[in-house]
Write a structure and sequence with these properties.
Elements lengths: L12 E2 L20 E3 L12 E7 L2 E6 L4 E3 L14 E4 L17 E4 L11 E4 L2 E8 L12 E8 L2 E5 L9 H7 L4 E5 L8 H11 L3 E5 L6 H9 L5 E3 L4 E4 L9 E4 L5
Length: about 260
């Protein structure tokens, strides 16, 4: 088995490969640094399923059948259901990142490059793959340039994207880099990230079958989103903060599903 070693920031380890799906990424590829690892974890998540828990604000815990846990928008203050193996931070807003990393977290993926380059991540951990698509590459209305990534999570033949602090409609290249998307975590604040009209354009570009709202703890945000979204999608609410889902359970027609949890 071939092993490749680089610096801490660009680390490639070939130890073994689980069954993370590659079908999410059929259109375009980039030579991102790769981490492959296997730790023999176990999980109560059924085979060929993902467990998704809305932790709050823009944070979700994603757990695979092999027990790999990823937390999006790790910020250090939201209570966690478990210690994740991987954390992502789409941008350096204080509610979306922290430099204080809890013990037990193996990989910290920032959506920006602190050295000033473009962030590149591509990790395979057991049966789950995490990669990023850089966005906000230019200054938009005074907002941070080159400071954000959309993260894609692949496992159990499901392709999940965290739309993150996106400030623009996607380019054709970015849509291609995303590949097929089944589930999208969508910011519905309507102004901190982008307008609802811009969000609907992005959702039309990536065409997820399940939209899970996030980033909506602002006055009137949920009501304004629902008023505009109900003409486009069925809207449902779930009775808990957690779902277990596989490809067969993904709606054929796009739906919005609100999970319970802290905003």
């Amino acid at each position: 088995m071939k092993r490749m070693f680089a610096s801490v920031l660009i680390l490639s380890i070939w130890i073994g490969l689980g069954s993370a799906s590659a079908t999410c990424f059929p259109i375009a590829s980039e030579p991102f640094p790769v981490i492959r690892a296997s730790f023999g974890q176990t999980s109560a998540v059924p085979a060929e399923h993902l467990k998704i828990t809305f932790v709050g604000h823009a944070s979700f815990m994603i757990e695979s059948a092999a027990g790999t846990k990823v937390l999006t928008d790790y910020n250090g203050y939201l209570p966690l259901p478990a210690t994740p193996d991987i954390v992502t931070m789409n941008n350096s807003h204080d509610s979306h990142y922290t430099d204080l990393i809890a013990d037990g977290i193996k990989h910290v993926l920032r959506g920006w490059d602190p050295a000033g380059g473009v962030a590149r991540h591509n990790i395979f951990l057991e049966d789950l793959r995490v990669r990023n698509v850089p966005t906000n590459l230019t200054d938009i209305s005074g907002r941070m340039a080159n400071g954000n990534s959309m993260f894609v999570f692949e496992s159990a033949d499901l392709c999940v994207v965290h739309i993150s602090h996106l400030h623009h409609v996607l380019s054709k290249q970015q849509v291609g880099q995303l590949g097929r998307i089944d589930i999208a975590f969508a910011p519905i604040d309507g102004w901190m990230t982008m307008t609802h009209s811009e969000l609907f354009r992005v959702l039309a570009q990536i065409n997820p079958k399940l939209i899970i709202p996030m980033h909506y703890g602002f006055d009137g945000a949920v009501e304004a989103f629902i008023e505009k979204a109900k003409a486009l999608y069925p809207i449902r609410t779930h009775d808990s903060d957690t779902i277990e889902i596989n490809l067969a359970k993904v709606p054929r027609r796009t739906e919005v599903l609100f999970l319970k949890g802290q905003w």
